[in-house]
């Protein structure tokens, strides 16, 4: 083999072997990202309805926050303000995690009122009231 052919062969071998020696290109290693589902503390079932600025007669919530119709928030009779819950529409299986920032609902048989935005994402604005599962999520400290 000529000297040029040997040089080309060595260059190709080097190009093929070098990537297998590199970690990730920047000299550091990274741990894999592990996504975990929130832990469920308790479960309630019942009916959910939605509310808006118009049906709430204003923009004030019991927590003092301004009512944002598109926010992932809800009203519950007894859960502490700031509690995270997963609301699942039992009619279609859609769910969303919301934060309790208001009191209600004040209609017998209903366990939670969600904002009209959440109701839209869960697919029940036109229906108004649907059966739901409310999972109270544990906070990670």
From TrEMBL:
Sequence similarity: Belongs to the RlpA family.
UniProt KW keywords: Cell wall biogenesis/degradation, Lyase, Signal
Protein's job: Lytic transglycosylase with a strong preference for naked glycan strands that lack stem peptides.
Coiled-coil parts of chain: none
GO molecular function, one term: lytic endotransglycosylase activity
A Pfam short name: DPBB_1
Domain RlpA-like protein double-psi beta-barrel residue range list: 44-134
Organism: Luteolibacter pohnpeiensis
Keyword check for Cell wall biogenesis/degradation: yes
Protein name from the UniProt record: Probable endolytic peptidoglycan transglycosylase RlpA
Signal peptide (UniProt feature, chain positions): 1-22
UniProt record, GO biological process: cell wall organization; peptidoglycan metabolic process
Top EC category: lyase
């Amino acid at each position: 083999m000529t000297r040029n052919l040997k040089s080309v062969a060595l260059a190709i071998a080097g190009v093929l072997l070098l990537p297998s020696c590199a970690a990730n290109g920047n000299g550091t290693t990274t741990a894999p990202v592990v996504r975990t589902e929130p832990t469920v503390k308790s479960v309630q079932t019942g009916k959910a309805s939605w509310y808006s600025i118009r049906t709430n007669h204003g923009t004030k919530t019991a927590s003092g926050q301004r009512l944002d119709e598109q926010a992932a928030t809800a009203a519950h009779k007894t859960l502490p303000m700031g509690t995270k819950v997963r609301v699942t529409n039992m009619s279609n299986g859609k769910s969303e995690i919301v934060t309790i920032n208001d009191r209600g609902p004040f209609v017998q048989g209903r366990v939670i009122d969600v904002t009209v935005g959440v109701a839209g994402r869960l697919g029940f604005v036109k229906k108004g009231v649907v059966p739901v599962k409310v999972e109270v999520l544990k906070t990670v400290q």
